[in-house]
Amino acid sequence: MDNMDPIPITLYNTLSRSKERFEPLTPGKVGMYTCGPTVYNFAHIGNLRTFLFEDLLARTLRLNGYEVTHVMNITDVGHQTSDGDAGEDKMAIAAKREQLDPYAIARKYEGFFVNDMQRLGNDIPTVLPRATEHVGEMIALNQTLEAKGFTYATPEGLYFDTSRDPDYGKLAHLRLDEQKQGVRDDLNIDPDKRHPADFVLWFLNKPNHIMKWESPWGVGYPGWHIECSAMAMKYLGETFDIHCGGMDHIPVHNTNEIAQSECATGHPFVHYWMHAAFLNVRGKMSKSKGNFVTVQTLIDSGYDPLAYRYLCLQAHYRSELEMAWVWENDDPTTGRGRAESLDNAGRGLTYLYERLARTTEEPLSSETAFDSAYREVLASLNDDLNVPRAVATLHTYESPRLWNAFDPVLGLDLARRAKLPEDEAPPAPVFALVEERQAARKNRDFARSDELRAAIAALGWEVADTPQGPTVKRHPVGRL
Ligand code: AMP
Ligand code: ZN
Questions:
Q1: What's the domain range around 449?
Q2: Which atom of ligand 1 is nearest to the CA of 321?
């Protein structure tokens, strides 16, 4: 390949409100934490838009040769719902609704969540830690904060004292004197709470809460924010590369994660904070009213879940996406509905599969033309994950080989659905790694050879050694 210079990656960092050049803490490796689902019900397609953005980010980093450790928490400790049912927690409501104990509810919806991720073509994150299995780590983190003087206790719980943190609110550019109370933690106003922005690290005195643990402060359960800090630091270290979530998490949840983590360790918590814009479904979705669209709703309505994926690929992750969803007979209990944007995406995707399957003459037949087109698409992905531009470029070239080379990121299952040849020649960057690995093996440098095998796998290819030399096939992992 003539031009093997790596293409720099830039990411929009919510901390600085600007695009920054991505430099990982450890060369070649990326630690990434993403706020996961609360497993008291199905994930709706809005949640999944955020999880899809995070999947595209991890896949793009892998395509660039990084080894990515992706951690996504499973929130299986109940946290309170909004105003209507303050005092009850989400897991308790679901337990009552379904006559199951809260752990059974959590495991059931965790299973559905993993299944929905797969049906949408998302890779399953490297680690999916459950909050209930990390309460010890959360207590330890709270004890560190207490020992350093960042907490105070009331009969209702142990609080983080925001007045002790001069940096509080830096992510959201908040000023403490303007800060409103966070909605997710303590809806029952505690008269002993000192500042509206202070938040609960450990809840006490909540008789309706089913899941409870012993702690130095008394029997209770952890705050929601401490969950993410404790699990992120356990799996990725006190400082790591990337933390993602939906934009709704900027002012409270992620702000509080930063405050408690940095006050506990004295180090920066995360280098790059990335937030996805919302999917807005007209005809407001509400989990508590049972009026929301899930992957199963899409399937029951006759949609291919990948049509939803394809629709999301056409909007930048920092732009809101509108969907005018209409329930059959205007009745959400039918569990079926339609949206014009999804109809169009579904047709577009089918047409793409057909066109690619029919193309007999590869338009990018010369290596130079292929390499230059490959770099053009990669440059879009590396430019703060500009997937819509990458997809538009792929459409202009109409090259099965180029589409195939980027399917490890796009996840459209082209090899199967568009019947693109599995034994297709690898793109030039993979080919170069295979050559380099052959040279390493010749020099009996097996450690290097193994590293290169991993780098090839990270690009979505699998190398096998035969007496005739190496063969390279598309890697089966991560496909539907
Ligand atoms: P939750 O289960 O409510 O904690 O949400 C899981 C993830 O989905 C979080 O990152 C939220 O920010 C995100 N999220 C919630 N609603 C939407 C939406 N309508 N569109 C996109 N992301 C969302
Ligand atoms: Zn979180």
A1: 428-474
A2: 20
